[in-house]
Amino acid sequence: MPDSPYPGDIDAERQSAPVSHRRKELRRAFQSMVASRWALLGMGILIIVTFVAIFGPWLAPFDPNRQNIMMRLLEPGEPGAGDLTYWLGSDQLGRDVLSRLLYGARVSLLVGVTAIVVGGVLGTVLGLVSGYFGGWVDDVIMRLGDIQLAFPFILLAIMFLVVLGPGLVNMILVLGIGQWVTYARIVRAQTLALREKEYVEAARAMGDRTVSILFRTILPNIMAPLTVIASFNVASVILSEAALSFLGLGVPPDVPTWGSMLSESRDHLFSNKWWMAVFPGLAIVFTVLAFNIIGDWLRDFLDPRLKENH
Amino acid sequence: MGTYVVRRLLQSIIVLIGVTLISFVALQIGGDPTYLFVSENATTEEIQRAREMLGFDRPLHVQYLSYVWNALQGDFGNSLSYRQPAMQVVLEAMPATIELTIFSLVLAIALSIPLGIYAALRRGKPADGGIMTFAMLGQSIPNFWMGIMMIMVFGLYLRWFPISGHVPFLDPLFAGDFETAFTNLPRSIHYMIMPALAVGTYTLARNARLVRSSMLEVLQQDYVRTARSKGISETRVILHHALRNAWLPVVTMIGLEFGFLLGGVVVVETVFSYPGIGRLVFNAINQRDIPVVQASVILIAVIFIALNLIVDLIYARLDPRVKL
């Protein structure tokens, strides 16, 4: 793992000229994003999905849980009750697919982002401790990671969720805790490399407390690779959430999610109710695609040495 | 080499112990696990009787030791819905799952290597862009949705492939009935193509990118330039000099890939009503058949650990650069 792209004394630099430096960084980021059309596409999708996740309730034409047996399995574009149209069709209970899709964005983003925060914080702290102190602490933490990675993740999640029962908090905890190893391994490797650097030694010599050395001296210098991993990780967590919801282990039935919509669509494949399967799937694909693209771009932007040959 | 093998074996044993610990914790994490084994309208006496029968009234460490002891013998209790030993139910479903996993691994690798190489050779051209766009998409499509879409298009609309079911190949093979096994093979593959593609697309896409970038790197190396300057044909340079080194990262990943694919198979099997562990686990989830879920997950973890051990040992033998 190469060193962080930042020079060691980035903290000092930031403190001396914080505003202009940050503004410059932002402008550079923006320019690089515009230069890469992919990144722009990813950002565009992300902005739309975030917008929908926040304002879904105001955008949705129907209550996502309102059942209407008279309006079952309508094709996309068919007019429904009153002057409202089911733009993306309705499901087996007469609920509006578009409205459920808009609400579903909330769950996907919420679960994706919070699970990464949970896993990222846990993994980062354990990785810092592991790399900085070494010895038996390091051994224990890293072996724990090995053990966890011995399970294909989705199976581990299934095993816990079956016992814990479905629910948003359980889902976030299981998905989050499932991710810590990735962060811990990377943070540990970087901490090992930084531990011996002069500026860390200087901090130690000046009598800084260990906590301060870990979080104020070392952590800021390893944020770049962490950000890249987090972006890819959100993508894979959203995929896992969809898979678990699809298996019936997700959030309760009254919360619409893309995964559970797909699960319901399976019973209607033979009668060719394609809209029930196509739209939620596309929503997942575009959201995950956006995070993957942004991850690629971040990697190239933050650490050009890791750049894939383009 | 000897110490490496011993160290690696010890590591695997520690991990195995950890696996039993995690699955034990998973069982206990929701509170008294007795409630997972009795029906919802069981009386207090019935619950108490079940608690004693299942041993959940004993202290935790005693419970754990007996859990490990039983697990070592493959005993995870009786399946609640099949009324048979859970491990036996799982083992019966295993060959179908292994078949599908191996097939999707082979498919993913066989397709990703030529695609990656072709993209690298056509770097910056439309073919490269196309393959990389496909790879980017492939890493973003949920495998089970891919399965649903394939069922709709290739199964129901075009009617090219059967949309569910399975023709066994490994089962008769293990039973020593080679004739049946090989007569079954073509049909077996016909049934497996759609699920295998659904499971393997992610791996295929990721490996295509991996092969491409490592190929691009290798093509810039001195030994490739030397080979070219000696006037060797381009095909030979690529197949003989470049490819050999370019696909090393893919080989390294195979062990991990297998575990990852197994996880995917579990989800995709339910889409295709494919009679393997995945569908078993799916039904077990719905019936809250905990012994079957536990037996499946642990069996897969054990296979995964063994496989990684084997891959590491083979790799250490093949690549002298691995420190022993």
Write up this protein.
The complex is a heterodimer of chains A (310) and B (324). Chain A is mainly alpha-helical and 310 residues long. Chain A has helices spanning 10-16, 18-35, 37-59, 97-133, 135-149, 153-164, 168-177, 180-195, 198-205, 210-218, 223-246, 258-265, 275-302; strands at 78-79, 85-86. Chain A has 13 helices and 2 strands; from the N terminus they run αααββαααααααααα. In chain A, helix 5 runs antiparallel to helix 8 (180-195). Chain B has 324 residues and is an all-alpha fold. Chain B contains 14 helices and no strands. The radius of gyration of chain B is 24 Å and the shape is globular. At the A-B interface, helix 5, helix 6, helix 11, helix 12 and helix 13 of A face helix 1, helix 7, helix 9, helix 12 and helix 13 of B.
Give the secondary structure arrangement, pairings included.
The complex is a heterodimer of chains A (310) and B (324).
Chain A (H helix, E strand, L loop, with lengths): L9 H7 L1 H18 L1 H23 L18 E2 L5 E2 L10 H37 L1 H15 L3 H12 L3 H10 L2 H16 L2 H8 L4 H9 L4 H24 L11 H8 L9 H28 L8
Antiparallel strand pairs in A: 1-2
Chain B lengths: L1 H27 L5 H4 L6 H11 L5 H13 L13 H36 L4 H13 L4 H15 L12 H5 L3 H42 L2 H8 L4 H13 L1 H24 L5 H10 L3 H29 L6
| Counted beta strands of chain B | 0
What order do the SSEs of chain B take from the amino end to the carboxyl end, as H and E? HHHHHHHHHHHHHH
Say how many strands of chain A there are.
2
End-to-end C-alpha gap of chain B: 5 Å
Distance between the termini of chain A: 21 Å
| Main sheet characteristics of chain B | none
The radius of gyration of chain A is 23 Å
The quaternary organization reads as heterodimer
Mean pLDDT across the residues of chain A is 82
Proportion of β residues of chain A? Answer: under 5%
One letter per element, helices H and strands E, the order of chain A comes to HHHEEHHHHHHHHHH
